[in-house]
Design brief:
The complex is a heterodimer of chains A (428) and B (506). Chain A has 428 residues and is of the alpha/beta class. Chain A has 18 helices and 15 strands. In chain A, α2 (57-65) crosses α13 (330-340), α13 packs across α14 (347-353) and α17 (386-399) runs antiparallel to α18 (404-426). The longest helix of chain A is centred in the N-terminal third of the chain and has 38 residues, at 2-39. The chains are: A alpha/beta (428), B alpha+beta (506).
Chain lengths: 428, 506
Amino acid sequence: MRKRLSTFAAVIGAGALVLSGCAASTTEEESAAPTETATSEAPAELKTIVVWADEQRGPALEPLLQGNTDIAPGYEIELVIFSGLEALQSAWDKASAADGPDVLTGPASFTLAGRDGRLLPLALSDAVKQDLGSASLGALSLGGNQYGVPLDTDTTAFYWNTAFGEMPSTFADLVTVYEENRADLTGGVCFFDGVWGSQPFLTALGGGAWEVGADGAPDFTTVKLNSDEFKANLVEFDLTGANSNFAKWDGCGEDFKAGKIPAANTGSWNFDGIVDAGIEFELGAFPGLAVDTKGAQWVNYSGAYVTAYAADHDVELGAKALVAEWMASPEGQLAIATAQERPAVSSSAAESLGDNLKSGPFTLAGATGMAQFSAPLDNSTGGANWYDVLSSLYTSIFVDGDDASTALDEAAAIVAANFAEGAKALAE
Amino acid sequence: MKSLTGSITKVLLLSVILGVLGFAAFTAFIAESWIIGTVLMVVLVATLVVYATGKLVPAKFLFPGLVFLVIFSLAPILYTQYMSLFNYKSGNLISREEAIDQLERVGFRQDPQSTTYRFELGELNGEVAAVLQNDQDGSAQLAFLNTDTSIDLGVVAEPVAVAEARGFVPATSDELARVGEGLLDYQFQLGEGWVAIPQSFRSAARLTQQYFYDPVTDTILDRINDQVFVDNGNGNFALESNPDRILFPGWRQLNGFENYSALVTKPEISGPFFNVFVWTITFSFLTIITMFAAGLALAVALDKKIRFRNLYRSLLILPYAMPSLMSILIWAGMFNREFGAVNRLFGTELFWLGDPFLAKLVILIVNLWLGFPYFYLISTGALQALPSELEEAAAIDGASPTQIFFQIKFPMLFQILSPLIIAAFAFNFNNFNLIYLLTGGGPTEVLAGERAGATDILITYTYKTAFLGTEQNLGLASAISVIMFIIVGALSVWSLRRTKVLEAVQ
């Protein structure tokens, strides 16, 4: 009896094999159908272009892209929205030809994937290049290849709590307000977004990352972080020392919303939160040393990239049509900027957008800021990247009270090595 | 009836398992995942042999465990060891063939004017041709795939109509759809090395190929700059005259034990690795000592019947019952410098998580809180297992309670608990959650040139090396993982030998 049952089980198992094989064969035949159909002159099935986006850009792009078959005729666009940039980054890091996207949207740091052969270079027309500008295109290029089409700019503006009076016209005015109210304040200026948002503070006082030429071209060989001017201004305004409290960069947003810090530097993404907190504020440029001078903001361009997986998925042509034609075109740029409510990269789209409370200062910051090049900033040849170096530097001179000049020189030595190596990656 | 029900259940379950395995194997083969498909087929056949016959009774119990051991333990270990022999990092992730293909693909350069064209595919006299209208100046030409000679159509508003007059037949939508992605392979000759390559169905760009791979000499030729790039043996093509100038992408290159030797010979790697290694050992020892001491002390204190003993025992187990993820995050908030409860309670402004020494202290304190209930429980059980006659006899002989504990009870307790202590040591050697969630491995004295955090242990350092930052070094991380495996494996073997567990089985 048992032998018969065992044999029966073996037969069942073999049958299961056969059935699964038939199921798999059917799947294979179905997947082969479009080719046979095209050959026999029946309408070909639409190919799918998969686009990845994060929770900020995704909802804005969804009405433009999801299910769209007009942008790239013969292709249907499928948009996958991730819960956040970290989730998107994590998925992209692990992506392969089996599950990777055909088009990736995200910050300029994604351009570095070109070094791994995971992105395809794009050939843009001269008209498009003029419209988008060399700064944005440069931030999304690597090794002489254009990998990304800029979609929008992440930049920041100076938020001034009007409860503390008029917007300061100079940095000295800002410090004066802080000193007069120091007993009730927990800081002088809050960089909501960490050290990244502190760039205008550095540049306003004569510091910063690298030198920028009169033509706007970056000079990665000249590190400004430990410039004599910056050192002198730190001393003049008495900004350093143990627990100096003026510059806050680590979780200070709630204090600004509670009115305990008079000024902040952050982007439009915190605009609604600050409004909801009941803060009456003015937007403008980070005040510089003299009237009508200002600190230069970082301008982080996010872009759309055609991945090497598009070629593996046989949709490279459609993906390039989506990115290099539609997204790069003035019409596409305007549609995306309107949907995202962020400053447009395209100069023609920016003219059409107009100016409002939200986009005005951010648009200006985008137009006059410093392009953020990932290759030198994210490079860690010197031991740590720009952001980690800044974080350690601020802790050293604003919290621990270490000698600012020595700390700045140490930091500059690290970032100089980073910039040199990063500049190589950008060049041909 | 019972055995019939059982047999039917067995048959159905077996059928489902075999069906799932069979479908998975066929799907793997269709996707050309030969290794996965073969493994699944082997497992399927072995399942059939083991469970469909009445023989091999011990195998029926061991088989599932063996399968999972091989697939989820042995295979990853072997693969990690294999990958540790490669130069496998950012810029060197893909295969050599893929890298060469990419270099040739990305090796096309636009002309300085970024010339692009409106593009119309068709044929002329049976030969594939394209009407190209310059986006900048409107000039048009008819170009071909196999000849440099193009037909100038002039600056016209309707170049396609002009071309049709010359016999050009535009492709229909269906014909374009049939060509499909194959359009990317078309290179319409423009002369002097320049070609027009379609970028979509209606546009093309003027490009020239800069990099060519020569399979005979195994070099990459830069046609524009007249340079030769050779295989540098480390996964990249490098300029012969300047080895620092390398082309990307590179490929993952077998480099033997270079990752292991780098841990010792390269200062930027050996320095952080040694510091992290020392802290890992130190942390594991200190945390075990503190947890064991606290757990044992509480077990001894509650060994005697006192009022509310059961309540105390329940309260002491609470830290063990709470999810450690939550606990660690709450502790991180409590040690926050500006708004943490610890600083507010003591009226201090200590930078607990920002000072290297204090951060290490915080790690030990939090892990003590998380781990002492475990040692309390096992110590309680071990104390109860000790024979009371020894204690009574020692008391009769005049030994003090301290002498009884340290000279009689403690040695026996230690012998009973040593396998668990060793296992706890091995666990904390790889305690990723605690370090990553509490301090992130930091703080890092970046300005002093530190590359690893003060509280990084080997597992967090390996994770950062492999996955964080722009320079992801998977080969080096694999080498560190192998070293960790050897250490923890050696500990496990020593523990097994010490407790003579296998001798008991024999």
